[in-house]
């Protein structure tokens, strides 16, 4: 490192606050600090500002209806169509030839869909879905990787008022079946396979395996991604995507006017119990909210080329690859593959080639980039970038600064956006044209978002003290319920801090956090038994039940341990059944296989540790905290309150020796 570089690094390391560059502020969509007050004074009518981004077929009567709280209703009486708002109106307004989706295939091929192209293909596929029998309110499942047919299918569903339920393609056959059964979903859109690091992966076999466990008849549409690279045959209830679209070439389908509160989609997410939760999002509130936050937080404009590197199979992709950016008429980049194929500069090549203005990724990716070194971004001209974002887990100041310097060239603000599948869109973040940034702290709640950090009794804690994150007012993008499980909706999110007698409702996202004197919030992570592996939420119970399902394993505890790139990694502690003590290698293999089969490779355990006992309190509860410390290599605290303190050292020795 040169002397100049070294002093730059040292300066950066010490700097705790960063002002947004003047050049950014001057052009920012939102730069008047008065917006916070404006939202507060005029609440909830201030939310009309979000609804105004959309074209409504029927204007709404009321901004917020609280009569059924905590099932709040937004923009009641209003009617609109999401696909109309993402496509038709831009074409009508002269943007027919503007790129809507720029798709980058892993092998280097590209496809560009203008708004006009996308509208045509969505129309044709919507006509095909109708022809297959899909009716308004039927849930259509999609089990697809990052191919353009995925957003096309989602928008086609939105056009005919059929809610979609996208299952991440990396999830297992079991996970697919569970979700299709829970939603009674009789339609599935999938593909034959996809490419990963140049290899053709079979996806249709996994799909078919999942379908065997689906309890009802299913019509399936299969996209042919691999051509001759994979031989497969379709059964009678399986239709080829291209043939369907061709059969409906040139057809158009009138977008269905949906009630603001009608379901736009379902998205399943992991919780503390073994059963995933079907988070329900609506047409009016959700779409207004993601459009407003894409405008104010991501600063998107129609002229921008924007890239969010998430997978559409997660909420980040729904809100900020598809709905928000397209509702604004922006060009959204979609990348099929991995960041290190064919080389570790793939992302920067994509940024340079597409002249990306705004880039949104996850801390786990940034940590991987850091590990690979600055020479990869340095190979490319990244000067088109104006704003950077992160989401998924806390970002440590070192990674933040690396991103700021080596990707943003110290000229782009960074938005560290805290939100969840359930919140629909951003909740806590700086507004890039207004607030200074503090690496490691997401920032204040957005205008209109009333976040408070409380103690166990619900009282606000002092600045600097750790507490629980709560949201004390509703917002348009919030989930409405858990699909067909209103009871669990209340018990999961509202029971902890609300006062139902007084009709006072407080949303609890199950994160710990602290707040500083300026109202900046540092999120500390989940306080429930949910892990955050590479920014993905995994329930420990789901993994545990997969492990104890293995013959020869009597009991298991799953915890998260620190991991340099993934943030958290899955650690399994398991007790073999009598007589299986000498088969640990096979048991480990089977435990890993079982986790991959029931959830998917993302949940693959980092390590399976066999032990004759698990550390338990005198009342018989497993001491998870201790197991986490062992997995993370932390100093171990007091173990004297345990029923079996000796076991702790034994387990720790074993983890060190492995
Ligand atoms: C959980 C939600 C929102 C899309 C991606 C994940 C954690 C998310 C941040 C952030 C600290 C964060 C929280 C949250 N999280 N963003 N910027 N800083 N933590 O969605 O799967 O619903 O997970 O991710 O723990 O509760 P999700």
Automatic annotation (TrEMBL):
One of its GO terms (molecular function) is ATP binding. Keywords: ATP-binding, Ligase, Nucleotide-binding. PROSITE patterns: AMP_BINDING. Residues 1-24 are annotated as: Disordered. NCBIfam families: Ac_CoA_lig_AcsA, PRK00174.1. Belongs to the ATP-dependent AMP-binding enzyme family. This is Acetate--CoA ligase. It comes from Natronobacterium lacisalsi AJ5.
